[in-house]
Design brief:
CATH superfamily of the largest domain: Vaccinia Virus protein VP39
Strand content: 15-25%
CATH topology of the largest domain: Rossmann fold
Radius of gyration: 20 Å
Number of strands: 13
Bound molecules: S-adenosylmethionine
Distance between the termini: 31 Å
Structural class: alpha/beta
Oligomer: single chain
Shape: globular
CATH architecture of the largest domain: 3-Layer(aba) Sandwich
Order of helices and strands: HHHEHEHHEEHEHEHEHEEEEEHE
C-alpha cells in the first residue's frame, strides 16, 4: 500500500522540488566545483524535479558501470553519465511512470550535450526491492548509487541484498538517505506526506547498520551527514521527539571484512592520480588521506583500498601476519554523534 502512496506522491502530488514541505529531500551538501559544472549541464526540466538529499558522486568514475536506485527524473543518472564518460554506462530504475518518463524524454538531449554518439544511459521501470527481475547481470556493476529513496521502501533488506548481488567484488553502493535517531512508530507510514517527504520510512541509524551487515556489507562507512530541520510545526508535532539526519554511506562488497576495525600494523600511501583528488583522497569522514603521507589503517580499510578500483592509486604497507588488537576510533562513526560531522549544518531549504 505504501508503495502506491509513494507513486502518487512523486507522480502526481509533487510538481517540482519547490513543492516539498520539508528540507528532507533537499541537497545542502557542499558541491565541489567540477560537479557543479556537470550539474549545470543538466536539462532544467530534469533538475526542476530533483528530490535528492545528498551528493552521490564517488571518486574515480571513468569507465564505470553504475546503477541508480529510484532515479526519478534522472538528474544523478545524467550527471554520472557525463562523469563515467562514453566507455561507462549508467542505468536508472524507478517505479513511477511520470518520473522515469521525463528522464527518458531527455536521454538523447543529454547524449548530444555531452558529445556522445549514443546515450550511455538506460532507464528501467521497476522496483528496487526486485532488482533480480531487471535486465542486469549479477556481479556486473562497479557502483550503485541512490539518492533519498531507500527510506521510502517497505522492504529495505531486499533492496540491500539485491544491490549486493548486482555489484562486482570490490564494487560499492554509495548512497544518500534520511535516518532517524530512534525507531519510529510504524503507523507514521500511513501518512502520505510524512512518508513522501522521506521522514516516516527513515530507519533508525543503528538498525540500518545491522541491516547493511546482514546484507553482506560488513563495514558501512559514513561519508557525510547533516542534521535536517523540520520547518513545518505540524509535521514536527506528528514526528514527536524524533530528529533526522541526511547521511551518505559507502558500502563495499568485499567478502570477509571483519565486524570491527582490527589493527595489523598496516598503512597505505596515496600516490595521487584520482581526478579532482590529486592532493588528498577521501574514503570516508574518518579517512582523508594526503598524498605521499604514510597513513596507518585497519585491516578493513586496507582491503577496501586494495580490492577496489582505487588500488592503483595506493602503495600498501604490511600484511595480515600479526594482529595488534583493535584499531582505535576507526569504523565507529555514526550520524547524530557530535551533530554535523563534516561541518555542515541544517538551515534553509535549497
Ligand atoms: C525522493 S525521490 C528521489 C528521486 C531521485 N533520486 C532524485 O534525487 O531526484 C524518490 C524516487 O524513488 C522512487 N521510488 C520510491 N520507492 C521506490 C521503489 N520501491 N522502487 C522503485 N522506485 C521507487 C520514486 O518513484 C521517486 O522517483
Amino acid at each position: 500500500m505504501s508503495i502506491e502512496m509513494v507513486k502518487e506522491y512523486y507522480g502526481r502530488t509533487l510538481k517540482g522540488s519547490d513543492d516539498l514541505q520539508t528540507d528532507a529531500c533537499c541537497d545542502l551538501d557542499a558541491i565541489p566545483p567540477h560537479i557543479r559544472t556537470v550539474l549545470s549541464e543538466i536539462h532544467p526540466d530534469v533538475t526542476a524535479r530533483y528530490y535528492g538529499c545528498g551528493l552521490v558522486v564517488p571518486e574515480k568514475l571513468e569507465g564505470a558501470h553504475v546503477l541508480d536506485l529510484g532515479c526519478g527524473t534522472g538528474r544523478d543518472v545524467f550527471a554520472l553519465a557525463k562523469l563515467v564518460g562514453p566507455t561507462g554506462s549508467v542505468t536508472g530504475v524507478d517505479m513511477t511512470a511520470e518520473q522515469i518518463g521525463l528522464a527518458r524524454e531527455h536521454e538523447q538531449w543529454h547524449a548530444a550535450r555531452f558529445g556522445y554518439d549514443a546515450p550511455n544511459t538506460r532507464f528501467l521501470d521497476g522496483y528496487i526491492e526486485g532488482l533480480d527481475a531487471l535486465d542486469i547481470a549479477p556481479g556486473s556493476l562497479d557502483i550503485i548509487v541512490s539518492n533519498c529513496v531507500i527510506n521510502l521502501s517497505p522492504d529495505k533488506e531486499a533492496v540491500l541484498k539485491g544491490a549486493y548481488r548486482l555489484l562486482k567484488p570490490g564494487g560499492e553502493i554509495y548512497f544518500s538517505d534520511v535516518y532517524a535517531d530512534r525507531r519510529l512508530d510504524a503507523r507514521l507510514r500511513d501518512d502520505p506526506v510524512l512518508l513522501g517527504e522521506c521522514l516516516a520510512g527513515a530507519l533508525y541509524w543503528n538498525d540500518f547498520l545491522t541491516l547493511a551487515k546482514q546484507a553482506g556489507f560488513a563495514d558501512p562507512r559514513l561519508v557525510t551527514n547533516r542534521p535536517l530541520a523540520i520547518g513545518d510545526p505540524a509535521i514536527a508535532e506528528k514526528l514527536g521527539g524524533a530528529s533526522f539526519h541526511s547521511a551518505t554511506y559507502r558500502l563495499f562488497k568485499i567478502e570477509g571484512l571483519e565486524g570491527s576495525c582490527e589493527d595489523y600494523g598496516q598503512a597505505v600511501i596515496y600516490k595521487g592520480g584520482v581526478r579532482h583528488a590529486e592532493h588528498r583522497f577521501t574514503l570516508d569522514n574518518h579517512h582523508v588521506i594526503e598524498k605521499g603521507r604514510v597513513f596507518p589503517v585497519c585491516g578493513n580499510t586496507f582491503r577496501m583500498l586494495k580490492e577496489s578500483r582505487f588500488a592503483p592509486h595506493f602503495e600498501f604497507i604490511g600484511d595480515f601476519g600479526t594482529h595488534y588488537g583493535i584499531f582505535p576510533g576507526c569504523g565507529t562513526n555514526i550520524p547524530f554523534m557530535g551533530g554535523a560531522a563534516d561541518g555542515e549544518t541544517s538551515g534553509a531549504c535549497c
